[in-house]
Prior knowledge:
Its EC number is 3.2.1.153. By secondary structure, the chain is mainly beta.
Amino acid sequence: MAQGWPFFLLVLFSCVSNHLVNGERVFLFPQSHKVSSIVSKRYRTAYHFQPPKNWINDPNGPMYYNGIYHEFYQYNPNGSLWGNIIWGHSVSTDLINWIPVEPAIERDIPSDISGCWTGSATIISGDQPIIIYTGADKENRQLQNIVLPKNKSDPYLREWTKAGNNPVIQPVGPGLNASQFRDPTTGWIGPDGLWRIAVGAELNGYGAALLYKSQDFLNWTRVDHPLYSSNASSMWECPDFFAVLPGNSGGLDLSAEIPNGAKHVLKMSLDSCDKYMIGVYDLKSDTFMPDSVLDDRRLWSRIDHGNFYASKSFFDSKKGRRIIWGWTNETDSSSDDVAKGWAGIHAIPRTIWLDSYGKQLLQWPVEEIESLRRNEISYQGLELKKGDLFEIKGTDTSQADVQVDFELTSIDNADTFDPSWLLDVEKQCREAGASVQGGIGPFGLVVLASDNMEEHTAVHFRVYKSQQSYMILMCSDPRRSSLRSGMYTPAYGGFFEFDLQKERKISLRTLIDRSAVESFGGGGRVCIMARVYPVVLVDDGGAHMYAFNNGSTTVRVPQLRAWSMSRAEHK
Length: 571
């Protein structure tokens, strides 16, 4: 072991002052030297998607067509703050290396003159791509518009033409708020053979996915009931609706016949995160029926428990899988973003599927990301006793892919699970941080750490015993990630159920990409994306990475593998 945990604690707590803020004890690091400027190329990611400059947010209309992946995105061509939104467009053959092309949709008709907002792509009649998106007019009404490729023989589909009958859907109807009506989904075939889409809306003050149908995808009629609505929330942004087969990691194409036994997923963006329900699409009533209805939306399942929003999925016909993308914003200040000249990235595209129990979505980085791996290092048979901190050397710690299996030597000392923690998991991660000793855990990784640990980000697990099973808490904690002031650094976290009688190994995969730390726990049961801005990245001090255990129960590491990651091409 390189350094014991007591040293970690000594450094962590001897170099801080502590104060009570809003009833919570907050530790503040003294800034012993002038912090370097945040305007540095070292914070631009090397293999996460981002354009060369300016602001981006939601991924839009992802699709695979004639051998090319298309990534559209909300883009401000004039600066690094939100505004003047159009659709940027990049293309790829592998989801990793991207070529920017001309903007696909610009603000040039009355129904999108104030913004070309989020939408989706559908491939109809076998080979006709079509995009439906939200535009805002001068009265701040939100309307749905259509564009089609001008030349389908152009492999990059550089130019798009707007339909002559735009807007194809207007915000009319009882209970509809015209300024809360946006983000149409990819189309699917309904029980009558007609196309369906859902549009996020506020209906009578509540969140809803409104249902529309069409024979030709150009002329739309509102169905007299929503696909689904809930009085537990208000406006739903960026709805997504897709089919999944329990235990099958392959994806399903909504425009094809859905096999028996399939479930459907309704995903929505609200409360600064992406949530979802699993249920069935009832063909008779033409509605989504969740398997369970939770009145408290804090308990709704989440796609990602960190900095991840406005996700959009698509069926990848090349490899027969469903892929989901999400937007990750900056957690510095707006003035920092202006100075940097860029803001926003997209998470690594993930394969998404339903677990064998039909209860939870699982996610994993697309396999193409492994093409960037270089210089593998591996360790086998490590044993982490209480207080151990093992340094992982020989890899580029600022651009890495790390996979670790943790094996429990005993489950006798698991602390008792409190179900009320599910209502505020971030609070539990704050109170049960990496420095707080437990029965089983915390154990995990410390990444992007400075020499003296003044800066570090901890990604870790704790094991709790509930009445019927074991609950694993996964936290990604960037609260000590940077000496910079004014950063937004919450402690992110999520719980997942785990059968420790059958599975003694808990896996962690963390993708470190300069200012991005993207982690997948328990085989993709919990995913957490975080953004960090360590001074050590800019000052070339060399960041460190460790495996650690601060629980009373010894944890084995049967295998730890790490790779340096090459830079992807974002020309």
